[in-house]
Structures are given as structure tokens and as C-alpha cells.
Amino acid sequence: MATSVRATGGGSPPPAAQPPGPSAGSREQRPSGGSGLRSALYRFDLKAVPYVFVAPFFLAFAAFGLFPLIYTGWLSLHRVELGGTAQWKGLDNYRALATSEFFWNALANTFTIGVISTVPQLLMALGLAHLLNYRLRGRGFFRVAVLAPYATSIAAATLVFAQLFNTDYGLINTALGWVGFDPVAWESSKWPAQIAISAIVTWRWTGYNALIYLAAMQAVPQDLYEAAALDGASRWRQFVSVTIPSIRPTILFTVIVSTIGATQLFGEPMLFGGSVGISGGSGNQFQTLSLLMYEKGWVTGALGQASAIAWVMLLLLLLIGGVQALVSRSHHKRRKAGS
Question: How many whole angstroms separate alpha carbon 122 and alpha carbon 202?
Fold first, then answer.
């Protein structure tokens, strides 16, 4: 009955609920000096340590990449001789290049050597990769063998090829004499010299590109080949209709990389020419842009003109990269529209 009286209001109302106050055991503890230091170290470790880990790369890039690039651009706007002071000339070095026969000759030589070395190189690399993609006896040995020329130094490979293409006692002219041809002046003639240099480049880089193509071919789904075989496609038809379209991005990549390498070609022509290698032969018949830049900077001492050539080469490489981006984007759009 007492309980019912309280429920019907006969008794006093219950006390209002009070917010719980902090008890003695649950009082907020202020961080001591040691815990605050640990918290600061933790925040530093969380936010700053990743930047410390990547800092060596950026420091090395700034010292050996960014600073030389900016400083070379500054030198290209000045007349600078070795051991002298810089004099502001603006775009005079670039205007001098536009009217220089040596510059246009070096640009043309760079283009022709690049074409006659890149095209056969990539075609042979595709063929080698296609053969290595099938089950062959000793396939691992052949994969290592095709990479051996890439591991050979430029100096050793060029000296061997210089002996092979020697005008007087070279093996190439000897073989040509066996079939009734006259000896070829491989070093003193323009096109023979460029063909010989292109042969060195092709020999060194074909196996490297072949392994890149091989890696791309092994990523092609086998279902595509099985479907093509069921349709009666031969191995050549499978290569043309299945393999080439599947590895097209890799082919584009190797074309761009080989073009960039051809633009920077330096060691092969310099060593092939011997004593006149820096000038690209007695008549500049195989002088590339890299050789001309070296000659301007360290032989004649015109560092401003050499820097201008370096920046022209950079602009050419950026142009090549832009063309690659446009081609890749258009190819991606066509594939997306086709799907």
C-alpha cells in the first residue's frame, strides 16, 4: 500500500535527476611532462618521418637534376667561355643555332641514324620475342643470350664493330669482296658510316627490347590464342591479329624510349670515329646533337651555345613525349568507343 500511495502522488515527488559529477576515481588526469613529450614525438613520427625517408631522393634530384637544368637554361642565355665571365646575350645563342649549318647537319644525322637503327631493332625484337614466347628447348638460355649484348659495354662493342667495318682489313669488306663488291669506305662516307653506327645500336638494344616484348606477350590471355586456333588462324595470323593489338601499348613505349635514346646518341659515333669522333668524322657526316654539344662546350669552349643545344634537345624530347601522350589518348578513346 505504501508503494501505491507514492505512485498516486500521496507522497513527496522523487528528486530531480542530477548530472553525474566527476567522481574521485574518474577525474580527468592532466598529461604529465613525459606523456606530453611522447605525444609530440608521436605526432612528429606520424607526420614528418615519411618526408625524411623520401628526402634523399628529392635532395639528389635537386642537386643533380633540377639545378643543372636551371643552370644550363641560364647559361643558354649568356655568352660564356671556359674560365670567363657570363655576358647576357638573350636569345642570341638560339638564333645562332637557327642559322648554323653544323646544327642542322647534326639534327639531320640524329634523325637518320635514329630511324635506321630504331625501326630494324624493334622489328627484330618483335620477331625474337615471338619465337621465345613458344616452348623451345633451352628457352632460358636463349633469353639470357639475347640480353648479353645489352650487358656489353659501349666501348667494347664499338671497338669490335669498328674493326669489322674497317675499310682496309675489316671482315665486312672482305665478305663483300668475296661476292664481287668493291670495298666500302665505312668511316669516311656519310651513309655507310651511319649504317655502321646504326648496326652497333641495333646489336646492343635488340635483345633488351625483345625481353620487354616477351614479358608483354606472356601477359596476353591464352584464351585469345585458343579461340583464334579454333577459327583456323595460323601462327602468323595469331601474331598479327592477337599478339600485336594486345601489346600495342608496350610497342608504343619501346618506340618512345628508343627515339629518346637515338636523340641522345653519343658513345657509339664518338668511339667509331676514333680521333675525329667528336666532330662526327672528317666531314661531320655522322655528328649527332650530343657530339655537337660536347664539341661546342669542351673543345671550342662555348658553354652558352652548348647549353642552348642541350635545351633544344630537351624541347625535342618533350615534343616526343607530347606526341606519345596524344597517341595513347587517341588509342584509349578508340578502344573505349569500340567497347
Answer: 9
